[in-house]
Amino acid sequence: MPDVNGSLSVSSPVRGTALSLETVPDPVFSQGMVGPGVAVHPEPGQEGGQEGTQDAVAPIDGTLAKLHPHAFVVMAHDRRRGVLVHLGIDTVKLKGEGFLLLAEEGAEVSAGTPIVRWSPGSVAARGLPTVVPVVALDAAPGALHSFADGHVASGGPLFTWE
User: Fold this and answer.
1) Tens digit of pLDDT for each residue in 35-52?
2) Of 124, 156, 130, whose CA–CA distance to 13 is shortest?
3) Which of 25, 145, 143, 157 has its CA nearest to residue 86?
């Protein structure tokens, strides 16, 4: 949510361990080609009565600009900043299998709104990385601050975008 100085607080979409984006096994993310951010290595969990599932939640208040089973983008209300959440690496290959959409593209969402239910364990069982890149799309170098490091709760602070 933007504060009076125009900074945007970005929350973790999943529960897990926050690490450098450089830990992502995909150069598009690890080299910051789409923008800077943080990698969250998810913990298996239990939500919605289904063992091993997690609900990936909106990291900011805004509009759900793009929604795929494996990834989504929320545009801030200022329409200048968008945050990409990508659930695992190469998960587009799963063609939606193992992902349940909980929202609709174009919806207005608040930080913490459930967007996609998924199972990191199921993704891992298929030999795919479960890491969740959270990217400030097209952010200027040095625009992100106050990075989380270590355990983060779903909806907990991840970074600040100035």
Assistant:
1) 999 999 998 654 544 558
2) 156
3) 25
- Number of helices and strands in the chain (H, E): 2, 16
Q: By 3-state DSSP, what share of the chain in percent is helix, strand and coil, each rounded to 5? A: 10, 40, 50
Of the residues 77, 86, 145, 151, only one is catalytic, namely 86
Place of tokens 């602070």: 157
Query: Are 92 and 69 within 8 A, CB to CB?
Result: no
CA dist list (Å): 126 to 22, 100, 103, 119, 129: 23, 17, 25, 11, 9
The tens digit of pLDDT for each residue in 44-87 reads 654 544 558 999 999 999 999 999 999 999 999 988 999 999 99
Report the predicted TM-score, pTM, of the whole model to 2 decimal places.
0.93
Closest by alpha carbon to 103, among 44, 61, 136, 57? 57
Is residue 35 a contact partner of residue 161, using CB atoms and an 8 Å limit?
Answer: no
Task: Please say if 77 is a catalytic residue.
Answer: no
